[in-house]
Amino acid sequence: xxxxxxxxxxxxxxxxxxxxxxxxxxxxxxxxxxxxxxxxxxxxxxxxxxxxxxxxxxxxxxxxxxxxxxxxxxxxxxxxxxxxxxxxxxxxxxxxxxxxxxxxxxxxxxxxxxxxxxxxxxxxxxxxxxxxxxxxxxxxxxxxxxxxxxxxx
Length: 153
What we know:
- The structure is a single chain.
- This protein is an alpha/beta fold.
- It contains 9 helices and 4 strands.
- It has helices at residues 4-9, 12-15, 23-29, 31-34, 39-52, 68-76, 90-104, 113-125, 134-142, and strands at residues 59-63, 80-84, 128-131, 150-152.
- A 4-stranded parallel beta sheet has the order 1-2-3-4.
- Strand 3 (128-131), helix 9 (134-142) and strand 4 (150-152) form a beta-alpha-beta unit.
């Protein structure tokens, strides 16, 4: 794909996983973005690049943790925002992982507080949060997200 703007205006944020494949980054930001380390920085760079390229659309559909900057721009443009979350609410997930690492006697290597904050910003800005299971829905309710904002997908 040669047009990064087209990539950002499509559903690319919900179809790409920068932790698994570098191809979307080469397409969106050139080879330099695929080489950015640590991988978490790639997510932020990609998010910002995509946010700069958001065109006029009615909807932003994105993966959680990948779209805080895009969601801010989309909100200013009056777009509807759907965030697709594949696992527990960010804060609940962090708590569960910290407990599991502690119980295993290992140093915590899960999502950072910054990642958790990104997830919460996206949830706050979203019109809907798509969740894959009743368990994930319950973690959002536990964290105080209004039931009307949650969509069991």
